[in-house]
Please model this.
Amino acid sequence: MKIFTNPFEICSEKRLLLVGLLATLFAGWISTCSSTLIFGSLKVINNYHQSYGQALINLAITLVSNSVILFAFARIRYPKTRLIDVFSVVFTAHIIIYILLGLTALPIVQESVRAVELEILDEGFQMPELEKIHQFTLGAIGVLSISLIIYFFYLLVVGMKIAMNSKSKWESVVLVLLVFIWNTCLQFLNLYV
Amino acid sequence: MKLPIYCPSCAQKLSVSKLLCTTCETEVTGKYEMPVFMQLSVEEQEFFMAFLLCSGSLKEMATQMGKSYPTVRNKLDDLIVKIKKLNDEK
Model:
């Protein structure tokens, strides 16, 4: 159970980093196959065609920039913070976002999203009517996505608190805000290839 | 048996007032302060001993305890803070 609630307490940083790296390589492949992009840590966009190399570069932009921002904050608060610990936290937490990416890439979800797009194109935003199956799929994916994003933040905060030996609650709030703000900035900067 | 550090009645720090030789049953009474090590919790004392036995290697300790390196380092940092506080209280 601890592996899901707090893997950073029981697993070595090297093992977590390795798992995170393997998951990133797999996420790059899903990204390429499904033409989806993790646009910042918290957003997945469709119809973004990219090669496998480009997908990995895009993932690296998100992962490395988030790690550097969090490391800078952690280093200010706790000078003994190590970069490898921050990297392992960021890479491990992003596995949850890769699951989100995988869900978005599912054919049934893509079909439902396409149905919404077509409905809006045909009928406009006024009273778009969807089949029950599409309504159910989108509803379920919506709830699951929100749950996964909450879990992503939970892992990130729990891991960072260990990496920077934090005991205060306000630092958890700052960590969440930092990730929110930086990933919004990433979307505006649009460094993706 | 666990040595009580705090008074079960008022929660204040306890001191040693009586020592006993278990061989000849000589009793020494007085008012002695507990050493810093004894003022730590059992878990902290065990951690301290493990740290010594691992020659101060946090990596080795992490492996032995089945915990990650930063978890063990944080525990040690907290222990250092506590020992400094106990020393200042003297």
